[in-house]
Amino acid sequence: MATTNKLRSSPSLIFLSLALLFHFYLCKGDLLLNYYSESCPNAEDIIRQEVTDLYNKHGNTAVSWVRNLFHDCMVKSCDASLLLETVNGIESEQASERSFGMRNFKYVSTIKEALEKECPLTVSCADIVALSARDGIVMLGGQRIEMKTGRRDSKESYANFVEESLPNHNDSITLVLSRFQSIGLDVEGIVALLGAHSVGRTHCTNLVQRLYPTVDPTLDPQYAEYLKGRCPTPNPDPKAVLYARNDRETPMILDNMYYKNLLSHKGLLIVDQQLASDPTTYPYVKKFATDNGYFQDQFAKAVLLLSENNPLTRDDGEIRKDCRYVNSI
Ligand code: HEM
Ligand SMILES: *[C@@H]1O[C@H](CO)[C@@H](O)[C@H](O)[C@H]1NC(C)=O
Questions:
Q1: Cα angle 56-62-64, degrees, rounded to a multiple of 5
Q2: Which of 162, 212, 269, 324 could form a disulfide with 234 if both were Cys (CB 3.0 to 4.6 A apart)?
Q3: How far is the CA of 121 from the centre of ligand 2 (A)?
Q4: Each residue of 265-296: pLDDT tens digit?
Q5: What is this structure's pTM?
Q6: Is the CB of 290 under 6 A from ligand 2?
């Protein structure tokens, strides 16, 4: 007891803990607002312009940028590892079953090319993932989120890590919560983040389990009929473009309709519907369903936290020239 007390008050220990605290503070601080202000002053404007042009041509690109943030940042870090393609010993994370249905990767190259033209080898693909999600959210009617930049790109893909990082569509609420808690989100933030399912689509393979052989009793019967109409067979060809809108009412608007749907038993995936039945998440579903402004604030906070998960900075990683490949190839 006496030794512990002596240790606790020892000046060198205090110094060590302060140094450690400072170290962690600095590591976080490696991301900066306007990181490219000197090296590529127009970087953020270029990304916003490209995201806007792409949205006007292919509206669903904005939706893809939001999903990309989740799939990139949850797997180890926001490091654009998601964007690497299978080549020379690299196995793409995109090939994982969890990435099923992801689209529009080719348009990341459109954004990257515009940046390379203005400032070669300067703006990371990881920052493109973050800022395109930020700008995509605005296109979809969400808040503008102030995001720091300065992320660097991984030199490897973490395909083997995808399934243990990203929950599946039918995982338990306990597992879903623990996955997100491991990156520092609290329950309210997790419920808010899942509000991203207010936009986009889901393929029938992810739904049929709730429709056949018997209809999931937590599904509204009329809604189940609609879904059966969209997905008429229990074993759909995964490649068939059979899908349902995540939110039938406002499919391309990021809003709190998702939570209203959950309360009326019209959640699309099992992970969605569980938010309304679990006692720890239900209060937030109710709160967000009644207050879109409050939802938007909590969504923005959660997206920001996700976007800052464990970034590579300083000498870690690299700035890729082509987001699909590491530079050394
Ligand atoms: C428990 C966590 C989650 C699970 C299990 C999950 C699962 C899924 C599944 C199965 C789809 C449908 C894919 C398809 O069939 O095409 C989907 C779509 C989508 N997810 Fe998630 N998701 C989760 C969390 C998130 C989060 C946190 C975000 C973003 C912040 C997100 C954004 C999206 C978007 C935008 C789509 C629509 C994509 C499109 O239309 O192309 N998801 N998700
Ligand atoms: C979850 O869905 C997958 C297919 O997407 C299936 O293989 C698995 O058995 C399902 N798990 C549970 C617990 O139902």
A1: 135
A2: 212
A3: 42
A4: 999 999 999 999 999 999 999 999 999 999 99
A5: 0.91
A6: no
